[in-house]
Automatic annotation (TrEMBL):
Protein name (Swiss-Prot/TrEMBL): Sulfurtransferase
InterPro entries: ArsR-like_HTH, Rhodanese-like_dom, Rhodanese-like_dom_sf, Thiosulfate_sulfurtransferase, Thiosulphate_STrfase_CS, WH-like_DNA-bd_sf, WH_DNA-bd_sf
GO terms, molecular function: transferase activity
Organism (species): Natribaculum luteum
Keywords assigned: Repeat, Transferase
Transmembrane parts of this sequence: none
Length: 364
């Protein structure tokens, strides 16, 4: 339904329907409970407004990921590409062609490196957002709250209306984690540089150690989108439901031979995996050039594991960054509609007392 048709359909609806429509348009899909909390409407009034929107063809509904007994409502006018030309992936050539625009200290277009190797050299005009050090509490399995997120990004010249392009070292997993965090706070236009920092360097494009001068600005985040974030309680509930839980760690971690990945991340108390988990190593979504594999290859990869677009899916790793990369593939490249990242991941589950754990010494 086009804009004029929407306005015409809304004109004859009650005020509650119009209020709910504007709320969903601003904040994205919500359950009835979320709507009553956001709008302060009574449940009866909110339900009546929703019914009227549904009859007018302006509303879609589906089971909520975190509780299949609840319904999640979204605007029937929502599209996957609200800006018309919005992309989720950009190439190194795309960034190179816009370097002058990135260098203007203009909040419309911002380039971000999302790791701790910024000082050794970065793409010109990129600012640093060290997500693992500054926006994630590994030991506490927590993410930056809304105020911290707003302050941190505003200090780097980013606003909620910015087009943000993110990259990082290794397989771009830290960039994907930051991308997921942006989407958690409902940032509209955020993109990944396919191939990340390695791909940029391999092309021979310029690098610098100079930090750009940016003007601090105000960032106003939207309410968090808990549809794309899984908590421990969601995992516990999923064990009794038809939900795909995908472990994207290495085979050694999955089998229980390691309690953490190589590196500096803390070990969990136990090793193994969540019972009934599908195992798909995160690096399998990346090709030999460090870029995402072709869509047909990715579709086959998940189809072979029994993970289909209509399934509710939760992905996890050790602290959430590798699983964010797989979340990106499922949600943004393959259009799976009900995918959540369990950012607590194994560092939380493996430290719980009496949480069910399986090992698979003879498995993958």
């Amino acid at each position: 339904m086009e804009g004029d048709d929407v306005e015409e359909a809304l004109e004859d609806l009650p005020p509650s329907s119009k209020f709910i429509y504007k709320t969903l348009d601003r904040s994205g899909p919500m359950t009835l409970k979320g709507l009553t909390q956001e709008t302060l409407l009574s449940s009866r009034t909110a339900r009546y407004g929703l019914d009227q929107l549904e009859e007018a063809g302006l509303l879609e509904s589906s089971p909520a990921l975190h509780d299949g007994r609840q319904t999640c409502y979204r605007l029937g006018t929502d599209t996957d590409d609200e800006t018309g030309d919005q992309q989720t992936l950009v190439t190194a050539e795309w960034v190179r062609d816009r370097l002058e625009e990135f260098e203007r200290d203009d909040p419309d277009l911002c380039l971000v490196e999302a790791d701790d190797e910024y000082d050794r050299g970065h793409v010109p005009s990129a600012v640093q957002v060290d997500i693992m050090a500054d926006l994630v509490d590994v030991d506490g399995c927590g993410l930056a709250d809304r105020e911290t997120f707003e302050r941190y990004l505003g200090e780097r010249g980013i606003t909620e209306d910015s087009t943000v392009v993110i990259y990082s070292v290794e397989e771009n997993q830290y960039a994907a984690y930051l991308y997921w965090l942006f989407k958690y706070y409902r940032h509209t236009d955020v993109r990944l540089l396919d191939g990340g920092k390695h791909g940029w360097e391999e092309t021979g494009y310029p690098m610098t150690t100079d930090e750009p001068s940016v003007t601090p600005r105000e960032y106003v985040a939207q309410p968090a989108d808990d549809r794309i974030r899984a908590y421990r309680t969601d995992i516990e509930a999923a064990l009794a439901r038809d939900v795909a839980i995908v472990d994207v760690r290495s085979s050694a971690e999955f089998r229980g031979e390691r309690a953490s990945p190589p590196g500096e991340l803390p070990e969990a108390r136990t090793a193994g995996h969540i019972p009934g988990t599908v195992h798909l190593q995160w690096s399998e979504v990346i090709d030999d050039d460090g870029q995402f594999r072709d869509q047909s290859d990715l579709e086959q990869l998940f189809r072979e594991r029994g993970v289909t677009p209509d399934m509710e899916t939760i992905v996890y790793c050790h602290v959430g960054e590798r699983s964010a990369l797989v979340w990106f593939v499922l949600s943004e490249l393959l259009d799976h509609r009900h995918v959540a990242n369990y950012d607590g991941s194994w560092i939380e589950w493996g430290n719980l007392v009496d949480a069910p754990v399986e090992t698979d010494p003879d498995g993958q």
